[in-house]
């Protein structure tokens, strides 16, 4: 079976316990205005262009079946994402951001690090994009890794068909689910979809038998106010009393990808909260009796 792969990140230590390989699968039903992985919003092969690395040699143009020029962002609609220019570029100015990968290849690559998983208590984490968007690929991969007794985690935005996905979720040891905003209209404003389905799915996470961590990406100008954090904590405490929560401060690590894809950067008024502010918000959750997780 083939799927759309963004990347495999070995030796990851922020996506669950121990040393893990994080498998990023492309496609997402949300289009968050601050997304740090914008290449994962769609399911198609995708090449990025990094102008600062380009020396203007023209090797990419010579290799391209479509004859696309050096600045591919001017002709991006013509690009098929075949990757010929990536192989030809001598400086790494072209990078394959999404490729078509065979599930057996993904399994083979991940299995190379099984000793690190075993010795550290780590394993595999599925991420994206949104891994559940490739349901059949995720089902096959998770079943095979499960049969190999690998620890399995997943990071999800929560917008999926719960009954269809439940057999996959039951294979997971740990489920990270994002809670972007408690107000449905604000959620739609910043992500393109309402939060009703996400909240309903969150209520049902107890059916999976997995450890649950509800993550909030905390962004000034979006959701970093006391009321939203308190409402989020009250919801989690009511419906998932055993779950942990983790507050993740906004970052700009993915901004280079926006340039590489010829996309506009996220809004300038999106900002990272100070550590003092983050600790204040964590205090609100602690005051509700919620245990906080920290996988940073």
Integer tally of domains: 2
Report the biggest beta sheet as strand number plus sense, adding barrel if it closes: 9 strands, mixed
The helix content, as a percent range, equals 25-40%
Structural class comes to alpha/beta
Give the distance, in angstroms, between the N- and C-terminal Cα atoms.
33 Å
CATH fold description of the largest domain:
TIM Barrel
Low-pLDDT windows of residues: none
CATH class of the largest domain, named Alpha Beta
Radius of gyration: 20 Å
> How do the SSEs run, as a string of H and E?
EEEHHEHHEHEHEHHEHEHH
Please state the oligomeric state of the protein chains shown: single chain
Sum up the overall morphology in one term: globular
Strand content is 15-25%
Q: Would you mind describing this structure in some detail?
A:
- The chain is of the alpha/beta class and 296 residues long.
- It has 2 domains: 2-43 and 99-287, Aldolase class I (TIM Barrel), CATH 3.20.20.70; 51-92, no CATH class.
- Helix content is 32%, strand content 21%.
- The protein has 11 helices and 9 strands.
- The chain has helices spanning 59-63, 84-88, 103-111, 114-120, 135-147, 162-169, 184-191, 196-203, 226-239, 255-260, 275-287; strands at residues 2-12, 20-25, 46-49, 94-102, 123-128, 151-156, 174-178, 211-218, 244-249.
- Strands 3-4-1-2-5-6-7-8-9 form a 9-stranded mixed β-sheet.
- The protein is globular.
- 40% of the residues are buried.
- The model has no long low-confidence stretch (mean pLDDT 97).
Summary tags:
globular; 11 helices; nine-stranded mixed β-sheet; TIM Barrel; 21% strand; alpha/beta; 296 residues; 9 strands; 2 domains
């Amino acid at each position: 079976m083939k799927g759309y792969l963004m990347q495999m990140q070995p030796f990851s230590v922020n996506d669950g316990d121990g040393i893990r390989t994080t498998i990023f699968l492309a496609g997402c039903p949300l289009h968050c205005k601050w997304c740090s992985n914008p290449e994962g919003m769609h399911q198609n092969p995708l090449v990025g262009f990094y102008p600062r690395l380009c020396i203007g040699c023209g090797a990419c143009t010579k290799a391209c079946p479509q004859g696309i020029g050096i600045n591919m962002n001017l002709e991006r609609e013509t690009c098929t994402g075949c990757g010929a220019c990536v192989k030809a570029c001598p400086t790494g100015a072209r990078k394959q951001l999404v490729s078509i990968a065979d599930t057996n290849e993904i399994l083979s690559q991940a299995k190379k690090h099984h000793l690190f998983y075993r010795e550290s208590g780590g394993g595999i984490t599925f991420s994206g994009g949104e891994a559940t968007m490739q349901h059949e690929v995720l089902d096959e991969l998770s079943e095979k890794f499960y049969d190999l007794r690998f620890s399995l985690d997943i990071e999800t935005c929560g917008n999926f068909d719960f009954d269809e996905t439940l057999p996959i979720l039951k294979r997971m040891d740990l489920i990270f689910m994002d809670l972007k905003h408690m107000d449905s209209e604000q959620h739609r404003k910043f992500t393109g979809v309402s939060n009703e389905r996400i909240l309903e799915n969150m209520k049902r996470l107890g059916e999976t038998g997995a450890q649950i961590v509800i993550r909030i990406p905390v962004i000034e100008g979006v959701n970093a106010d006391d009321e939203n954090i308190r409402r989020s904590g009250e919801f989690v405490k009511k419906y998932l009393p055993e779950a942990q929560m983790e507050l993740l401060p906004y970052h700009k690590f993915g901004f280079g990808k926006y340039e590489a894809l010829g996309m506009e950067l996220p809004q300038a008024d999106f900002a990272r909260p100070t550590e003092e502010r983050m600790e204040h918000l964590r205090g609100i959750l602690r005051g509700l009796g919620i245990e906080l997780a920290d996988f940073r």
